[in-house]
Each structure stands twice: as C-alpha cells, then as structure tokens.
Amino acid sequence: MVDVKRALTYSFKDDNWIVKIIIGAIPFINPFFSLGYAFQVFKQALDNKAELTMPEWDDWGGYFKSSIMIILIYFVYMLIPLVLYAIGALVGFGGAWLMGTGSEGASGTGVTIAMILGGLIYFVGVVFAVILGLMIPMALANYAKNGERFGAIFQLGVIIKNIFSIIGDYLLTFLVIIGIVIVVGLAMMIVALINIIPILGQLLFFIAYMLVGFWLSLVIFPLLGETCAGAYGAGKAVKKA
C-alpha cells in the first residue's frame, strides 16, 4: 500500500513550497516544464527514497526535456485509441449524416449498420485507451530505470510483466488517485462559487485551478513512482533498450 499521507504532505515541508508551486502553476511552464519537474519526484519514489523533496527550479533544460518526453510517451501510447476514435467517428457520423440528408444511394439498413459499426469501433478505442493508459506509469518507470532511453517504452513484455508482478497494488493506487481527484474536484466546485464575481471571480478561479492542478501532479507522480518501485527489487537487472 502506497504512503498516501507522505504524498499529500511532503511538498508543504519545503521552506519555499509556496514559491515553487506558484512557478509550476504558471501557464506554459505548466505543462512544458512542470511535468519534468514532477517526474523528478516520481523518480525519487521509484528509487525508494525515504523522504520526498521538492526539487529546486534550477534545471530548466532538464525539466523541459523530460516534459516533452512524457508528452511524447503519452501520445505514442494513445495513438492507437486516437486512430480508432477517428475511424469510429468517421464511420458513425458518416452514417448519421447520410440518414439525416436522406441520401437516395444509402439504404436505411446500411446506414444503421454503419452507425453501429462506428460505435463499436469507438468503444474498442475506449477499451484500448483504458488498457494502454494503465500501462503508461510502468512504461515511464521502465524509461527512468533504463537511463531515460526512449526505446524502453516499447519493451511491452517487460512492462506488462512488471505490472502483473504488482497488479493488486497497481490497481489499488489508481483507485486511490481517482479518490483523491474526486475529493479535490468537489473542493474545486465549492471554490468555483467565486465565479459569481464578474471577471475577478473567474480570474481567481483560474489561478486556483492552475495551482491545485500542479500540486495534484506532485501528489500523483510519487504515488505512481512508489507503486512501480515494487516491480524493481534491489539488485534486479534492468533490460537495456
């Protein structure tokens, strides 16, 4: 079981936590530098560090590189679902459009089949998105453990094996994260009441949204890193990409 309390509280132990979170919440810095910043905490947890610490904002080049790589890894893993979404939407909406225009060249049965087929393809895309989405944290861990070599994210056999070696904790961590996100989301709904104040309220809510969003990444990344660490025992060999 991951140490949820540690993930929720470590950032506030830093003397400069307010400044560090404000920097990470600034648009453009978030996500193009902030993801790489949070990745450093992910690696601390992955390496079983006893204490988590907020890094200094002093490696902008490294944070940018890591952020771009994380975005790229996410895109690579979501490419198949995105293609299926596009095909499903094209087939389904194409059928709906033909039905709506009453095209003489399209039979009612054919159009219905096209709409059903489009829906099924889209559903398959959703299934792939869930499965591949669950694989991304372990792929990121394998990437980190292999000296941040991009090829490590394609070691699907290793990644899947590692996931199943800790499957119970792995799925439980996702449930914990979902719970945290729901609680934070409910809190933000209350904060959203300030939107009734014209302009100023909307600005304040946007600022709060960015601050909480970055802080949430600093909670989620170490939870995932700590969980993935269970698949890498002390002295365990890491396959090179």
From TrEMBL:
The entry's keywords: Membrane, Transmembrane, Transmembrane helix
TM ranges: 17-39, 71-99, 111-138, 174-196, 203-224
Designated name of the protein: DUF4013 domain-containing protein
Organism: Candidatus Zymogenus saltonus
